[in-house]
Design a protein that fits this description.
By secondary structure, the protein is of the alpha/beta class. About 35% of the residues lie in helices and about 20% in strands. The protein is globular and about 55 Å long.
Length: about 375
């Protein structure tokens, strides 16, 4: 595709006093500053809940007015925790059509000012109503997936602990991450139960935050090489296998075909792990290792910053925090930063030429894979 990322803006993720529009405007301002305020003719925004102080926000027109983009065109997208990735794909496809020259893409969520029960109900909107009626929540259904994965591949529960340790260690060097302190496997294993075998430190935290990217037609260090998207059954009971996510496998297949490359070409990856064992399922589904081999890939050091294919150098969803709509765009933005040499303290050891970002919605019902790289690499 003849579209590339020219600027990334990301404020600190965590518990923030600012409102939804303020958070989005902060990230957008950083991204616009990075291009010298050149004209924007497309605005694409995403938020799952879009909650302001007085209820739902009219996100798109408020942002256009706040940013002085009234002359632009645009649209708002929503795909639960995959919203950020969907906004990126939508903007890239719109630019590729030739109708627009430059797009500002924003994904934002404000969560920490709401009671946990409200957030839980909001997140459950991406689940099947029959499972919610039976008491299903995001953590409880993720626990079922985790149990099945551990049983099938005969892995101990401790692999979930080391996945959390990996993400939190990576986040220490990322100044925008929610969590700036490493944890030990013993601390993770001792954290309070949420939905066994998942404990508190196996689960991402509700966060406030926003990410913004500017995309332009043309090519550069972070050119869009491939986009892939896939669906799966919303009800877990309707799936043939809970130890792999068919939506990610389909999205990855399409992205690789679009990019004319394969898993062996990926030199850095960001995957969407709101629950630590999902780290392993995702790296397997995008082809970085064989099914069931994710824990061994991590243990080998291959996923470290100086490893063969660093994964979640930003801290991932567990370490970076999870303002749900923003996470999918943050993953793409982090790959762009690595490719552009702008990742700062959390840069990987060897400058990459091709990177992959994977995002998911709900319990992997609507998933996205994005491949960025140097055109012609």
């Amino acid at each position: 595709m003849s579209v590339h990322v020219v600027s990334v803006g990301m404020g600190r993720y965590g518990k923030r006093p600012e409102g939804l529009i303020d958070l989005a405007a902060e990230a957008a301002g950083m991204a616009l500053e990075g291009i010298g305020r050149r004209p924007i003719d497309l605005l694409v925004a995403g938020s799952m809940m879009a909650l302001g102080r007085h209820g739902p926000e009219a996100l798109l027109p408020r942002l256009a007015s706040r940013l002085g983009l009234e002359s632009a065109q645009g649209f708002r997208l929503d795909s639960a925790s995959g919203t950020g990735a969907m906004t990126f794909h939508g903007a890239a496809i719109a630019l590729e059509s030739g109708r627009f020259q430059r797009a500002l893409v924003i994904a934002v969520e404000k969560m920490t000012d709401r009671p946990s029960a409200v957030i839980t109900r909001g997140l459950a909107a991406s689940l099947d109503t029959s499972e919610v009626a039976a008491g299903g929540t995001m953590p409880s259904l993720a626990a079922l997936v985790t149990q099945r994965y551990l049983q099938r591949y005969h892995h101990p529960v401790s692999i979930c602990d080391v996945a959390s340790v990996h993400d939190r260690a990576m986040a220490v060097d990322n100044p925008t991450a929610h969590f700036q302190k490493a944890v030990t496997a013993e601390e993770v294993a001792a954290s309070r139960p949420v939905a066994l075998p998942l404990r508190l430190f196996h689960c991402s935290a509700n966060s406030d935050g926003a990410t913004a990217l500017v995309l332009e037609r043309g090519s550069g260090p972070a050119t869009v090489l491939g986009l892939g998207h896939g669906f799966d059954a919303v009800r877990l009971v309707d799936r043939d296998d809970l130890t792999t996510f068919a939506a990610t496998r389909l999205a990855a297949k399409r992205a690789y075909e679009n990019a004319h490359c394969g898993p062996s070409d990926i030199e850095v990856a960001e995957v969407h792990d709101p629950f630590s064992p999902f780290l392993f399922i995702h790296v397997e589904d995008v082809g970085l290792c064989a099914p069931g081999e994710g824990p061994r890939l991590l243990a080998s050091g291959a996923m470290a910053r100086d490893g063969r294919v660093p994964v979640n150098a930003s801290g991932g969803v567990i370490g970076r925090g999870h303002p749900v709509a923003a996470s999918g765009l943050a993953e793409v933005g982090e790959i762009a930063l690595q490719l552009r040499g702008e990742a700062g303290h959390h840069a990987i050891a060897r400058p990459p030429k091709i990177g992959l970002a994977q995002a998911m919605s709900g319990i992997a019902t609507n998933n996205f894979v994005t491949i960025l790289g140097r055109a012609g690499a």
